[in-house]
Amino acid sequence: MKRKKQITKIITRKSYAPPFVYKTFVKFRASLANNSGFTLIEMLIATAISSIILLMIYSAHRSISFAINELTGIADFYENINLTINRIDRDISCSLFSRDNKKLCFIGESDIDSIGLGKLNFVTVDHKKKSILADPSWEYPISDVKELGYYLKEDEEIDGVFLLMRREENHYDDDPETGGEENLLLENVVDIQFEFKERNTWTRRWDSTDHHKFPMAVRTTLKVKNYRGNDEEFVFISYINITK
């Protein structure tokens, strides 16, 4: 009790406290003595100040949330693009070729005047896939040799974009362009184009069944709608590992 009186005594002395502290304390003590509360103007001012503070907090929270969503969209978009490019590049680079086996085909085409017509079919070796043969006497035993196909399929839900599909068959046969199971690789694709390198020239059509020869490299142009709805183009070259 004695300590409280000392604190009150110090505050009430104008020389020991700043003017605004002294005035506030005096007003507060007077209101307690008169048993009165805050005035209407004071309540309105306090409400206005509180509203401004809350509005500032909400604006900061909204800006942070928008930035997080924007960065998440960017990260997801480029992650899917990188996974798709790495998948296509690995499959093409590991294409299987043999001069003695004419079933190992490499067939692809693109049309620069039309979209959605690019396609590619070939046989590849999936070195990272581990398979166990349950019965070697099967007609088509499971192995790391796959027949693959890349092509576009129209998106039934969104107009103007395609779905990039990857067809995979656990064996290769006389029909390299059909069969197997198709899986969705990438959404919101505008177009995909394949170009094939022979010596120093690039061509938009390749069929190894005509001359039983594989291209030196494949240039893929992938056009996708990004997270903002704008078209973004990615170009990469895959070199085929062929032993001459």
Describe this protein's structure.
- 18% of the residues are buried.
- By secondary structure, the protein is of the alpha+beta class.
- Strands 1, 2, 3, 4, 5, 6, 7, 8 and 9 form a nine-stranded antiparallel sheet that branches.
- Helices cover 34% and strands 29% of the residues.
- The chain starts with a helix and ends in a 5-residue tail after the last strand.
- The protein has helices at residues 2-12, 19-33, 40-93, 208-211; strands at 106-109, 119-125, 145-154, 162-169, 181-198, 201-203, 205-207, 217-225, 231-239.
- The radius of gyration is 36 Å and the shape is rod-shaped.
Question: What's this, in brief?
Answer:
This protein is of the alpha+beta class. The chain has helices at residues 2-12, 19-33, 40-93, 208-211; strands at 106-109, 119-125, 145-154, 162-169, 181-198, 201-203, 205-207, 217-225, 231-239. Strands 1, 2, 3, 4, 5, 6, 7, 8 and 9 form a nine-stranded antiparallel beta sheet that branches.
